[in-house]
C-alpha cells in the first residue's frame, strides 16, 4: 500500500485518497515540470504519503471513522471493502504512467481466470474485489491516462470520478424527480449551463443519455415526430404503417451511429439520400437535392476522421426554407463552441433544430454519458414521453424520464454538473484548446519527419500516412504493440491512415513528445 504508519502498519485513508486524486487533477499541469524532472512515480509516491500521514495524524481519521460508522454501523466488513476499493482505485490511477497503454498479452491470457462456474455458495467479497483488480486492472486499456489517442475516447477528470463514486453510494434513479430530487435538480442546472456553453437557444429541452448513438436516436425521434405532425400524422400513436414517407438527407461521411439510430427508428439505414463531400469530408451545400415533404437533414459538427465541420449556415438556410428539420451530430465537435478560438468552426450550428453530443468524450466524465438537445422541448417530450402507469402520478415538476428513452437510469448528470462547475467557462475552454494544440504538434512533428498528414488539422484529429497501405498498417500494429501510446487505424478517402485523436484532459506536452518519439522510432523500422 502507499500509506503506512510509523510502525509499518497500513492506515485507513479513503477520504484522503479521494482528496489527493482531486488535488492532483487540478494541479497536474503546474506539477508537471517537477514530475518530469524527478520522475513521476517517485514524486507521486512521496506526495501521496506525505499528505496521507499529515492528514492521518489530524482530523481525517476521526472523520473517516464517524462517517463510515454512520453508513455501515458495526458492519466492519462493509467499511473495509470500500476502503479496499478506494486504495485499489488510487493505486491503479497512480500507475497509469508506468504501464503499457494497451494490456500485455500475458494480462489478456490471465482473463481466463474469470471463466469459472457460478458459485453455489456466497463468496468472500474481498476476494471478489481482489480478483477484479488483480486480474481485471492489468487487462484494461489505459484510456484514463495521457497517451491514449484512439476512438475519440476522453479521460476522466478527477472531480467527475469522485462525484461518480459519491453518486454510486447515493444509488439514485434519475428518471423521476420524486425518486431523486437531487439528480433532477443537478440535471436542470447542468442543462442550463450546457445550453449556454454551446450557444443554443436557452428555451431548448434536453436529455441525459448513454452516448451519441442514443442522443442521435432521441434527436431524430423528435425530428420524426415534428415532420410527420406537420402533415397530420401522429407517429407515436399510429406508428409508421401507412405514414407519409420521410426523406432523410445525410452527408457522404455520415457516422455509423447516426445510421444505426435511423435504423432503430424505422427510417432505414440505406434509404437515405447521400450528399457528396469535399476533400475534408464536409457535406457540399451546393449538392443538396431538392427538398419537399417531410424531410430531415443531418449534418456533422466534427468529422470522426478529419474533424471537419459541415457548412451549417448554408445547409440550414436551404433546409428551413423548404420546411425541413435539421439535426446536428456533434459527438465531439460540438464542444468547439466552448472556446472563442474555435468559434469559426461552429458558425451557424445553433440555428439547427436538434443536436447530439457526448460528455464522455471532450468533457471527460466517466462512461457512459451523452446529451441530446432540442430547440422545441415539446417535440422531444412528445417523441419520448411515457403512457402513465397507475403508480406514476403526474405532477407539475419536470421529470427527466419525459426526455429520454429510459424510465429508470443512473444519475449521470451529477458528473456533468461537477465537471462544469469545477472547470468553469475558462477551464473548459482551456482544456479543449490544449487538446487541439497537442493535435497540431503531432501533425507538425510527423510531417517534419517526412510523413504525410492527410487532413487539415483544425481540431483534435490527425490522419497520417506512412506510405502505402501495408506499411501504414504495419506501423499502426507496431505502435499498438509497443505500448507507449495507442492510436487506431482508418481508411480516409481511399488511403490507409493512422488516426490520432487527442481528447483527454490528462495529456501533457511530455506525453505528446514521448508518443511522437515512439511513433517515429517504430516507423523507421519499416
Write up what this structure looks like.
With 526 residues, the chain is of the alpha/beta class. It has a domain at 1-98. It is 45% helix and 10% strand. It has helices at 14-38, 40-56, 60-72, 76-94, 105-109, 125-136, 158-170, 181-198, 212-229, 235-238, 256-264, 312-321, 377-384, 413-448, 469-482, 509-523; strands spanning 205-209, 247-251, 273-275, 295-300, 325-329, 354-358, 370-374, 452-453, 461-465, 488-492, 495-501. A 7-stranded mixed β-sheet has the order 1-7-6-5-4-2-3, sandwiched between helices. It has a 4-stranded antiparallel β-sheet with strand order 8-9-11-10. Helix 7 packs antiparallel against helix 14 (413-448). The longest helix has 36 residues, at 413-448. It is globular. Residues 1-59 and 67-76 have low confidence and may be disordered.
